[in-house]
Amino acid sequence: MEYRGSLVIISTCLVLLVSCFLADLDVTLPVMYVTVAAVLWLCWGWLRRRDGGTHQRVCVLVLGDIGRSPRMQYHALSLSKHGYQVTLVGFLGSRPHQGVLDRKKIQIVAISEVKGLQAGPKLLTYAVKVVVQSLQLLRLLLTMKLQAHLLMQNPPGLPGIAVAWLVCALRGTTFIIDWHNYGYTIMALSLGAAHPVVRLAKWYEHLFGRLSTLNLCVTNAMKNDLQKNWGIEATTLHDRPASVFGKTSLNLQHELFCRLANTYPEFQHPGTVGEETKAEATVFTVCSPNDGSVTLWRDRPALLVSSTSWTGRTLLPYSFNQNSRTTSVCLCFPHQILLMI
């Protein structure tokens, strides 16, 4: 109805404009204003036009490699299993999860990664990259079918948060941010906290991050920090392993530890054991030369693997001291803890 009404208004304005021109009447400017307003109204109605499937469509936006964004892939899988038609947008640097590829309700839309200028000042090349990526993302989000919700990962949020917010405001889409960390703190690792780009990124993230409709985060610590420092109310959605994950066999564990031992001395066994050589034994496992069976050392260390992007704001020792599970691990494995980040 809005679309047809705007067409009627525009047609009427055009008729009046032509009539005034032919009659040499000085009312052209007001009619032009009305015509421009009607055109804008028509465009706004076109952007918000809905169909029967709009309420079941969700865009999951990753301004990074989809294959290296497991949490966002799980979001897409979960939403599709609940009946939503999911458009997964991001870079295709590595292969996404097979379950995502096989799911008919998930459509992957690849965006090309902008490399920026090949020469010139770094600040200029970065600015050009941001502008080009903003225009690319804006065009993509405005031309796709109207989505009921847009779920975006942050970081990276520059320039995605501002573009996503603008599109959601124009199209009446619910804007949801899944906070994994702060983008400006990651930038500060290489540029320094006092760098102008980092300070600008912090201001940008703080401004547009508060314009989202809903917010998710990975931990309660992130939730508290968002509320305390930025005034953002978020819901904690803890990571859970997907159904495809299971216990790795000892043979595969041994193969992995042997490969790691070739690069990292920490994985090598400190000495030989009987007839076994260092190639057959790691600090965690030992392979029998007789039957090829693999067993775990009783005095093996505990292996803790973190997938978190640790930054200067993260107190790693504090995290261990406050984690009851880590305390339990220390009691079960008192010899040594091997941490991989």
String of helices and strands: HHEHEHEHEHEHHEHEHEEEHHE
Kindly state the percentage of residues in helix: 40-55%
Round the mean pLDDT to the nearest integer and report it. 79
Give the total of domains: 3
Major sheet description: 7 strands, parallel
Distance between the termini: 56 Å
Widest sheet: strand order?
A: 3-2-1-4-5-6-7
How many individual β-strands? 11
Structural class: alpha/beta
The number of helical runs is: 12
| CATH H-level homologous superfamily name of the largest domain | Glycogen Phosphorylase B
Structural commentary:
The chain is an alpha/beta fold. It has 12 helices and 11 strands. The strands form 3 sheets. The chain has a 7-stranded parallel beta sheet. Strands 8-9 form a two-stranded antiparallel ribbon. A two-stranded parallel sheet has the order 10-11. Strand 2 (85-91), helix 4 (98-102) and strand 3 (106-110) form a beta-alpha-beta unit. This is Asparagine-linked glycosylation 1 homolog (Yeast, beta-1,4-mannosyltransferase). Keywords: Endoplasmic reticulum, Glycosyltransferase, Membrane, Transferase, Transmembrane, Transmembrane helix. It is found in: Endoplasmic reticulum membrane. It is a single-pass membrane protein.
